[in-house]
Amino acid sequence: MDAALTGLELTALLGRGTRFDGKLYFTGRLRIDGNFSGEIRSEDVLVIGDGAEVTAEIEVDTVIVRGGTVTGNVRARTAIELYVPARIIGNLRSPSIFIDKGVKIEGSCTMAPVDGDVDEGDKGKGVAGQAGGPS
What we know:
Elements: H1 2-6, E1 12-14, E2 19-26, E3 29-32, E4 35-42, E5 45-48, E6 53-65, E7 69-71, E8 74-82, E9 87-89, E10 92-94, E11 97-99, E12 104-106, E13 109-111, H2 118-121
Parallel strand pairs: 1-3, 2-4, 3-5, 4-6, 5-6, 6-7, 6-8, 7-9, 8-10, 8-11, 9-12, 10-13
């Protein structure tokens, strides 16, 4: 039973009424229900709860947004899941993106692998710009 809980238990919680500014690096599963501003990086799962206010550049394995507002670009190596009443102001990039009916997004959505140098090498290009063509 412990093995089943391991993937679902929270490692850390930034609860309602808390505010954090800066760089956040974590392992495990982190849930944010308060206010965060800065940068978030991890090889694991980030959960953003209803009522959260997050202004950040996010690069993690999986992002689950259960509500609240995210302002900034979100890059996830495995998946992004967005549920009502989430609001995203920024660009999304992941090989798997789920968007619940009613989620508000202001930005672009790209379903493609996240590589370390994608932003620099592909600035100004859409996904179609990555396809090989006659030279």
